Amino acid sequence: MAHHAHKGRGAVSSPDGRFAKRQTEFDAAEQHARERHAPETVLTSIQAGKIISSNSSPDVPFDRSINPYQGCEHGCIYCYARPSHAYLDLSPGLDFETKIFYKPNAAARLLDEWEKPGYECKPITIGANTDPYQPAEKSLQITRQLLVLFARYRHPVNIITKSHLVSRDLDLLSDLAEDGLCSVAMSIPTLDSKLKRLMEPRIPSAASRLKALEQLTGHGVPVSVLVAPVIPAINDHEIETILEAAAAAGARQARYIFLRLPHELKELFSDWLRTHFPDRAERVFSLIRQASGGASYDQRFGIRQTGQGPYADMLASRFRKSSNQLGLDSASYQQSLDCTHFLHPAQRQLGLDF
Predict the structure, then answer these.
(1) CA distance linking residue 177 with residue 264, whole number of Å
(2) Are 309 and 316 in contact (CB under 8 A)?
(3) How far, in whole angstroms, is CA 316 from its chain's centroid?
(4) What is the pLDDT of residues 207-255, one digit of tens each?
(5) Residue of 43, 56, 50, 182 lying closest to 126 (CA atoms)
(6) Which of 37, 82, 209, 223 has the fewest CB atoms inside 10 Å of its own CB, making it the most exposed?
(7) End-to-end C-alpha distance for the chain, whole angstroms
(8) At a CB cut-off of 8 Å and minimum separation 6, what does 103 contact?
(9) Nearest C-alpha neighbor of 308 from the set 258, 345, 263, 261
(10) Dist. CA 291–CA 259, nearest whole Å
């Protein structure tokens, strides 16, 4: 089946999710019309139950996270979160970037968690799955509502994003940074504007993200860069130049993540690759397999984020060498934060915060 790129969208296909209860079929004429039609973004409100998610992954530098949104309009074709839309009986393809769900009660649910008598303060990461500063955030301001609580109750928070919109919240982030309560990790997988438009169509330019890093640094907020993902024969040659640009913008730490292709993402990425880079598709997958034990993805902890074998070792060596030369700590992309300032909501209500 032929696949078609849509302006401003990453996926060129919309396969059923792995939990789909029914397979959708159209006749040839309707299928052609659907492929050519530019899908619009639909925002849907959902009420969050428990807002803090936990994980025990040994290769993830946090165990608590919040995702204000499900789905992401940024449309990054490589996003490992795409398969999560299958749980909603939606396609991890175009549905993931056009059918966005937001949680208007996120802040209220967070406060509920903090009010529990046995709550233990540990850093929380916002944006581990989908971007907290995707386009909808500009008007909905759910991430900002959460940061207001983090600042009010002096709770440590790490942010992961690909958007310069994070600089909108400099007032809150700089206040948190004064007590060692926040850090920001900016993902920049390419400095090539043409590749960015194909790979991550609705993300702000690399230049605007680097400017946001400069602004954050200028206000005392510790920042890091994520070169994520590194895709063989697509952006792997940019590692050093991205690190140089990030260091110049004030980044303190750096990390890279090798392309991950879980579940439906393998098919989605393959469709995209053969549509935009048919001349090198086989070369890309050959290198991916070399780093993944002969498969398209090795999901084992300790391997899934970096790969293994000669090609993966070469990437690691290049990244380590460049990071060291630039004074970037490559052990992690998150700052160690202070948990001793947390004011339990009951303390605030009693006026015990000084």
Answers:
(1) 39
(2) no
(3) 21
(4) 999 999 999 999 999 999 999 999 999 999 999 999 999 999 999 999 9
(5) 182
(6) 37
(7) 65
(8) 45, 46, 47, 48, 51, 68, 69, 109, 142
(9) 258
(10) 10
**Side chain identity, residue 78:** Y
What is the per-residue DSSP string for 141-161? -HHHHHHHHHHHTT--EEEEE
Q: Which of 85, 126, 97 is nearest to 262 (CA)?
A: 85
Read off the DSSP letter of residue 294: T
Six-digit token string for 12: 């060129």
Which residue's entry shows tokens 């940019």? 238
Across the strands, what pairs with 284?
A: none
- How many residues appear in the chain? 354
Cβ atoms within 10 Å of 25's Cβ, excluding its own: 7
Q: What is the DSSP string of 309-341?
A: SHHHHHHHHHHHHHHHHHT-B-S-SS-----TT
Query: Rounded to whole angstroms, how far apart are CA atoms 8 and 29?
Result: 24
Residue in the block written with tokens 């996003």: 79
- In this structure, the strands spanning 69-70 and 64-66 are unpaired
